[in-house]
Amino acid sequence: MALIEIEHLDKIYNTTAVPVKALNDVTLQFERGEFTSVVGPSGSGKTTFLNMVGGLDRPTKGKIVIDGTNLAELKGSKLVEFRLHHIGFVFQAFNLIPVFTALENVEFIMLLQGISKEERQKRAIELLEAVGLGDRIHSRPGQLSGGQQQRVAVARALASKPEFVLADEPTANLDSKSAEDLLTLMEELNREYQTTFIFSTHDPRVIKRARRIVTLCDGKVEKDETV
Amino acid sequence: MLLALAWKNIWRNKNRSLIVVLAIAFGLWGGLFSGGLMVSMGESMVNSAIDRDLAHIQIHNPRYDENNDIKQFIPDPEKVFAVLKKEPDILAFSARTRFLGMASSATSSYPVHITGIDPEQEKKVTTLSEKIIEGDYFVTEHGISIVIGKKLAKRLKLRLHSKMVLGFEGLNGDLINIACRVVGIYKTESSMFDEMNVFLNQKYLFDVLDTQPIYHEIAIRSPNAEVVAALTLKLKKQFPALKVESWKERAPEIAFISDLMIQYTYLFLVFILFAVLFGITNTMLMSVIDRIRELGMLIAIGMKRVKIFSMILLETLLLSFTGGLLGIILGMGTIAIFSHVGINLSVFEASLESFGSSSILYPVLPAEMYVILTILIVATANIAALMPAWKAIRLEPAKAIRSY
C-alpha cells in the first residue's frame, strides 16, 4: 500500500463571483522514501495540493488516504493530532517562533507530542547538528540567516518523526548557495532516514534534484515523471 | 515551555505591553490608596464613636429609647454591676445617668443630653478625659462642675469658668434648673456630639434629684473587639428584661457607613478593572493580529486549538498579573507608609467632623481585600482574553500561514 493515496481530488473556491477550480480530478500515489517535486506555474494549484495533502484544507471532492487513514474521517482536534504525528511542514517563509531559540523551536513540536524534556532536548540537538547548526542552537531566528532559519525549519519538521515532509516552495526566499545547501541536506536526510519529501516549487534548481516530478497545470496533473 | 512562550510573547512589543501593565498598576494603585482612605475614614468614624461615647456594648431600660425619659432608668443596677464585674471579657464599664434637658447661657439655649458620670469609671471606658482642650476633667471644683463641648460653648457663647443653667424634668415631673460652672471644654472628632452632650459628676445629679443613684445607661468596654458579638449575646441572655446592644446595634448608621466604605472600595476597584479590561483586550487583540501567520503555523504543525486558547489566556493572565502585582505592591506600600505617618486632612476638618471622622486618617485595607482583588484580576484577565483567544482559535491555518 502506498504511503499517500489521492483519488479524484477536486477543490473549488467559491470566494469570488465565479467559482475557481483549483484542483481538478487529481489522482496520485506517493511511496515511502520519495523525493518528489510538485511543479507548475503560479496558480496551477501546487499550494492548494499541498494544503489538501497536509490536512490544512478540505477537498471539495475526492479522497486522501495517508498510511491507511482517510483524512476526511478526521475532524477537529483529531486532524490536528494526526498532523502532529504524521506530517512535517516546511514553509516558504520559515515560520519559526521568533522569541524561541533554534533549540526551543525544534523542541516545541515534541513538547506538543508530550515527549519528556530530556528526550526532546537530546533529539533537538541531534537534529540541529544533522542540519549543520550544532553551534547555533541557542541563536534566535533573528540572529540566523535565511538559509539557517530554513534548516531549523527542516529540523523542526523532522523532530516529530513524521511519515513525510511537505515543503511549500522551501527555497523561494533563499539565495542560490543557501538553496543548494538546503537541497543537499534534504537529499541526505531522505537517503539516510528514508524520509519522504514532497515539495512544491518552480525553482529549476529544486526540480533538477527531484527524483519524481509531478507537473500541475490549471489544477490538473499534466505530467508525472520519474527521473 | 508554554509558560515561557507566553511570557516571551507578551514582551515582543515592550512598549505596548508596558503601557497596559502601567495602566493596570496605576489604576489599582490609585484604587487601593483611595480605598484605604475611605476604609480608614469608616474605621475612624467607628473607633471615634466607640472611644467617644458608644463603647462596645450598652445596656438600657427597654423603654428608655422611647423619649430618653429620666424615669426610665435601669432597675436594680447593683445586680447588673455584680454580673459585669465577674465577666472576664469586660475591661471596664461606666454607669451613666442620662436624660434630655436644656442648656442655657445668658444669651441662648440649646437642647442637650445631660450625662452624669463617675469621672474615674468613665475614664476607663471612653476617651472624654483626653479630649479636654480647655480647663480640666473634673479636677477643679466650682460648685456644680460641668464639662461641655467646644461647639456648644461657641453656640451659647460660653467660656471656661462661665456659668450656665441646665433645665430638666425631675423624677416627680417638676422642672428643675441648676446652675453649673464650666470647668472643662472638650473637642471630639464629631462636632455634632460636642454640641449636644454635657457631662457632670453624677453625684450632683443624685443630690439635685434627691434620689438614690439611678442609671440610664451602662457603657461596657471589652479588651477585645472580636468578642463583642459573643459577649453581647451572653449578656442578652443574662439580662432578658434589659436592652443589651452591641455598638453596631446601638449605632447602626455608623456600622453601615463603615461597611459602605468597604463596599465602595470594591465597587471602585471593579470599575477600574472594568476600564482596564478594554485596554487588555485591545492589546491582546493586536498581539494576535500581529501573529496570525505564526498562530496559523502552530495550528498547522499540530498545536491543538485548546492549547492556542490556553496560550492566549496565559499571556493575558501574565500581562494582567504583572500590572496587578505592581499595582498591589505600590498600593500596599503606600498604605503601609501612610498607615504609620497618617494623612493630615485638616483642610477638610469641618466636613470630616460633621461625619464624626478624625481629620488625620491612617489608610488601611482589610487583608481579604487583596485576596478578592487578586481573584478580580484573574476574572478580568479571563474575560479580556476571550475575544483575542476566540479570534486565534478560529484561524484557518492554510489562510493564516499565507497572510502578509
Task: Write a brief structural summary.
The complex is a heterodimer of chains A (about 230) and B (about 400). Chain A has about 230 residues and is an alpha/beta fold.
What does it look like?
The complex is a heterodimer of chains A (227) and B (404). Chain A is α/β, with parallel strands linked by helices. Chain A has a single domain (4-226), classed as Rossmann fold. Chain A is built from seven helices and ten strands. In chain A, strands 6-7-8-3-9-10 form a six-stranded mixed beta sheet, sandwiched between helices. In chain A, α3 runs parallel beside α5 (146-159) and α5 packs parallel to α6. The longest helix of chain A has 18 residues, at 176-193. Chain A is globular, with a radius of gyration of 17 Å. The mean pLDDT of chain A is 90. Chain B has 404 residues and is of the alpha+beta class. Chain B folds into two domains: 2-49 and 255-401, no CATH class; 57-221, no CATH class. Chain B is 57% helix and 18% strand. Chain B contains 16 helices and twelve strands. Chain B has helices at 2-10, 14-54, 64-67, 77-86, 119-125, 150-155, 191-196, 202-209, 228-238, 247-250, 252-290, 292-301, 305-341, 349-355, 367-393, 397-401, and strands spanning 57-60, 92-104, 109-117, 132-135, 145-149, 163-169, 175-186, 197-201, 217-221, 243-246, 343-344, 360-361. In chain B, the strands form two sheets. Chain B has a six-stranded mixed barrel with strand order 2-3-8-5-7-6. The radius of gyration of chain B is 31 Å and the shape is elongated. Chains A and B meet through α2 and α3 of A and α1, α12, α13 and α16 of B.
